[in-house]
Amino acid sequence: MTTAAVPDLAVLQRQAIARAAARAGGTDRLSGHIVCDGLVRIFKTEGIEVVALQGLELVVDRGDLLAVVGASGSGKSTLLNILSGLDVPTAGTARVAGYDLLNMSARRRLAYRRRVVGFVWQQTGRNLLPYLTAQENVALPMSLARGRTGRAGRRRAAELLDLVGVGYCADRRPAEMSGGEQQRCAVAVAVANDPEVLFADEPTGELDEATAVEVFGALQTINAELGVTIVVVTHDANVASEVRRTVAIRDGRTASEVRRTARVSADGGTEVVTEEYAVLDRAGRMQLPAPFVEALELRDRVRLNLEPDHVRVHPGHGEDR
Ligand SMILES: Nc1ncnc2c1ncn2[C@@H]1O[C@H](COP(=O)(O)OP(=O)(O)O)[C@@H](O)[C@H]1O
Ligand SMILES: [Mg+2]
Question: Which residue puts its alpha carbon closest to atom 20 of ligand 1?
């Protein structure tokens, strides 16, 4: 457990939850905005099967800002593509905002993608249309999803660009903006249709560190101001340390989770407490962190002891010594 003085995380957290509750019509409706249970995705190419997700478990509450980390190939993009309705899982449960992503008609899927979710891609070029200005890019999904056009649409587009800190780019085309400005504009585009959930797949992957912080700040603002639930895949350890929850994916499963909570410290200030958890699935399976396994040279089998308030894990080898 480590502590650090980061006061504004707590403020943002409270604000995001209050906004989300206001949107949902009560705090009792915050739980389980996104639910994945035993989620499986198998790709078949030329007779070879790749199991990208193998029984993934994940619950995200309304108003949460969750970071997903994991090695390349661990299944992060597969998860986000499923949650955003672009891809269909092979088995398991995936529900977002009451939509069952396994059993959905084409029509309902289209409505889901237009109105319920927003998406930010890693490639800056994929998020914006090059021949439209920033403001036009933001106004476009509004007219498609909400029928909001004309002056009201332009005004809302300008507001959203201001919110993410690039109001001054309203009349510029993507080619006249930096990578970070484009990605912040992309965040505005992604929330233009007023979605309940925003997914971002390595939105800062092509940016330098300082610019990445600005884009991440835009996501935090959107979460706190609009009460949008956000799941962001990131490689960036700095970004992961700025959110309340970070979930690590390993081999297509959620392996561990870091939670940060704000509390009042001994000297009366606010401090953020960081705690690491292993994820326990319904069958009682969990993954030990690799450093633990290596430190005690654990392999093949371990001995478990149930104590009144915890479980002990011992190396299974050398038992008869
Ligand atoms: N369309 C696809 N066809 C075949 N295999 C795929 C496809 N998409 C992803 N995979 C495989 O699934 C695994 C997980 O990929 P991905 O979700 O992209 O990982 P990440 O985003 O964590 O890097 C990888 O082994 C990848 O090669
Ligand atoms: Mg990926």
Answer: 73
In a domain, 285, yes or no: no
Residue carrying structure tokens 């870091």: 258
**Is 39 a member of any domain?**
yes
Single out the residue of 68, 76, 66, 65 nearest to residue 39, CA to CA: 76
- Report if residue 159 sits inside a domain: yes
Phi-psi region of 57 (alpha: psi -120 to 50; beta: other; left: phi over 0): beta
CA of 50 to the centre of ligand 1 (A): 8
39 CA distance to ligand 1 middle (Å): 15
Domain residues for the domain of 182 are 2-278
Domain count, the chain: 2
The protein residue with its alpha carbon nearest to ligand 1, atom 12, reads: 52
Grouping H, G, I as helix, E, B as strand and the rest as coil, residue 62 is coil
Q: What would the mean pLDDT of 81-91 be, rounded to a whole number?
A: 95
Considering the domain architecture, whether residues 272 and 304 belong to the same structural domain is answered as no
Helix pair 150-163, 134-145: axis angle to 10 deg: 120
Tokens at 233, concatenated: 């895949």
| 128-144 confidence digits (pLDDT tens) | 999 999 999 999 988 77
User: Would you say the CB of residue 252 lies under 6 angstroms from ligand 1?
Assistant: no
Please identify, by atom number, the ligand 1 atom nearest to the C-alpha of residue 44.
4
Query: Which among 77, 202, 231, 249 is the best mutation to test ligand 1's pocket, defined by most ligand atoms within 8 Å of the CB?
Result: 77
Verify that 230 and 299 share a domain, yes or no: no
CB–CB of 51/63 below 8 Å?
no
Q: Are both 180 and 157 inside the same structural domain? A: yes
Q: Are residues 163 and 307 in the same domain?
A: no
In a domain, 284, yes or no: no
In short, whether 2's Cβ falls inside 6 Å of ligand 1 is no
Q: Is the pTM of this model over 0.70?
A: yes
Nearest CA to ligand 1 atom 5: 43
d(CA 61, CA 9): 17
Does the structure show a pLDDT above 80 at 237? no
Number of the ligand 1 atom closest to the C-alpha atom of 201? 21
Atom of ligand 1 nearest to the CA of 81: 17
Task: Clarify whether residues 39 and 115 are in a common domain.
Answer: yes
Domain co-membership, 78 together with 149: yes
141, 230: one domain: yes
